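Re: export button greyed out
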Amino acid sequence: MSSNTGFHNRAFDAGTLQKLNIYASYLKSAVAVFLNLPPTSPVKSINIYDFFAGPGMDALGRYGSPLLAIKTILEMATAPQTKHLWGKPIYFHFFDRKEKSINSLQKNIKDIFGDSLSSHPHIKIEFKTSDFETSFNDHIEEIRKTNTANILFIDQFGMAHFDMEKLISLSKCYYTDCMVFMASSSLHRFKELQNRFSDMGYKFKNPKDYRHVHTQILKAFREAPLEKKLFFGSFAFKKKTNIYGLIYFSGSRRGIDQFLRLCWKEDPVEGLANFFLHEDQPNKDSQLLFAFKKTHIENLQEQFKLFILENHPISESALYDKCCDLWMLPEHCEPVLKKLKDNKILQCSFRRPQPNQDREITYFS
Ligand SMILES: C[S@@+](CC[C@H](N)C(=O)[O-])C[C@H]1O[C@@H](n2cnc3c(N)ncnc32)[C@H](O)[C@@H]1O
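Workaround output, generated via the alternate export path:
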């Protein structure tokens, strides 16, 4: 397996910081949604699982995922926009297979947040030295309960630990959003991983062809025999010659909408990566050179229009799902819908599809 020695003894690189930023921003929006659920909702607690937690910070004292998560939640607990929402307990679950990391994490949290946490008794933390296989199996029943909302962060090295079986198992859960970090470059080093990904449906042609591994993994995940519909997305990072990716899935349109927006914020050109995924360009700064070509968004809009003309979907949710499949923002759908309305092809009361609505669409012929 890839070596993890020194990951936290060095400074986090730009890709790691970007990944952590996406995770923290996601937590902020997702926890607000879970806190805002109506009183009739069965959800009684919010659980944040960090299965590869690490000791908490890098060599420069910058926060890793567990400290960032606590900081984010504590800020929400006092911010004027969100402090009124508190009512449900929030449970953090931090696991790492190294006892030393869990001990350091516990100490870091106590030193940095001890005082604030003691004035927020609705926030509780579980620490455990445990490998992923064990902690996942120990908690999956709890995650599956209808009265818990869960956010899972699976920040593994390489791509060895998350598999189809776990995905299928998570597809049986109710309010559960999951982020899995995968380093596609480790694939070529491990024959057994190549086989595993071939079994998942990824046609592994060239060991150096990592660029689209995450897109292929998403395809295999989408085609898996899932218990119920999941919405998938991914964001890829290039670090030196390696490609890493954050894979997201959730059973909720609201969930995927939040992740989609964060990705487009990080990458306003494609919403997919911190490098050009679809064109063989070294970086996004050279995009102006390609101004004469049809933009990525224009291509997506064309596909969206064709989908409508060929399928005549009659519900907003079908449009929203297509927009997510194409990985475009609902705002990008607006000019397409306007033109179809102006040309008397269809009629609907909305300008762009919303994740939490299901209004009707009618056609003129
Ligand atoms: C990439 S680091 C996690 C970084 C952390 N999320 C952060 O932001 O600081 C991976 C961590 O996973 C732990 N680890 C490696 N294999 C593991 C396994 N099988 N089960 C649980 N933890 C594991 C390592 O000890 C290391 O702390």
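The CA atoms of residues 44 and 130 lie 26 Å apart. The button fix ships in the next patch.
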